[in-house]
């Protein structure tokens, strides 16, 4: 269980260590100003190969019908251990708009501990590796570089 802090659009195409710091600070400020920490866990984050599910919880801590789905192949970067709080896990997601243009959004969740945030970062990396391997063996990825070179671009930075 996590507290979903929200999302904010981010710019750039190179996602390197530290690229989520500014968006996470913005989301953290909005979260603390809104005093949303009255209801600490408002979501359940489930990371699997191909998809990540963010189940939203009601005030009783039960899953609602509202769920956000993220395709693992569209996640450009993920990281844990931010300066504002080591308990935050964040990922950059390529959102495709109705007109087929896209934007990069940084999503963030607050975990119960630094260890839980790091576990999510490692789970996301494993999900990406499995997804990438499957897409490559299915012929959906036609790239001459080795899988290690490509997967390195999407490597999680867990501090």
From TrEMBL:
Main location: cytoplasm
Keyword Cell cycle: no
Name recorded for this polypeptide: PTB-containing, cubilin and LRP1-interacting protein
Record text on subunit structure and interactions: Found in a complex with PID1/PCLI1, LRP1 and CUBNI. Interacts with LRP1 and CUBN.
GO BP terms in the entry: negative regulation of D-glucose import; negative regulation of insulin receptor signaling pathway; positive regulation of biosynthetic process; positive regulation of nucleobase-containing compound metabolic process; regulation of ATP biosynthetic process; regulation of cell population proliferation; regulation of mitochondrial membrane potential; regulation of reactive oxygen species metabolic process
Subcellular location field: Cytoplasm
Keyword annotations: Cytoplasm, Phosphoprotein
Function: Increases proliferation of preadipocytes without affecting adipocytic differentiation.
Domain PID: 72-132
Record Pfam families: PID_2
Keyword Cytoplasm: yes
Annotated region described as Disordered, given as residue ranges: 138-159
Database matches in PROSITE patterns: PID
Residues in coiled coil: none
InterPro entries: PH-like_dom_sf, PID1, PID1_PTB, PTB/PI_dom
Cleaved signal peptide residues: none
One GO CC term on file: cytoplasm
